[in-house]
Task: structure prediction
Amino acid sequence: MTLSFERLTPRQWHGRYARIPGETTAFHVREGANGWWPYVDWVIDDDRAECPMVDNPRARELAQAVHAGKRALGGRRGGSFLINEFGDVLVPSPLGDGRVVVVGRWVGGLRFQDRHHPGAVFDLSDDRALVSGAAWDRPYLGVPHHLSALGEIYFWEQDFGGAGKLTPPEQDNALVQALRRIRPRGAVRFVVGCGGLVLTKVEVWQAGLSHWQARYVGRLNFKRWFKKEGGSD
Result:
């Protein structure tokens, strides 16, 4: 797929937006040696690396679009953003007031320099070598969604006006089954990234201690998913 970025004038986002708390659960625009640039943080054990996007003209345009979004919300340059399953680039307010603007649409790979392994590159949208249930060995980020204990997929919408559950027009039984093969029981949180890639985490016990490991679930069937904000695709 050809890499492209369509920059938009920042406008208020009325669709789904949420983020798992933490620095490593979103993309960031930071000032580095080559100016302002998109980064993703990757933690392996206790080692945290700030990984810049692979150099390409679209990356600089993306950083500039995020700047414009932050300024439209009353902030300054830099800061966090997310890219949802449709490629919408979503910029939250730096003022903590819950506002979000959309600043563009990304299409194609999300390739970053692997600062844990100098000279290597990883792609957050490439799942060609993975089967459902395989370990996900790259940064874990995306818009969080949920599977209830009773098997219902939903999004939990929360803002200053209150909170509530949103469900897609049609439940995707194949996605439910894929999640249940990895997480057989109980409520499940999963994240959805650019291109519809779906990830979740499983609890793993080692030497009497538990920790959570990321797993690849699969890809969304967009015919059984939420509609894109402002369109039907």
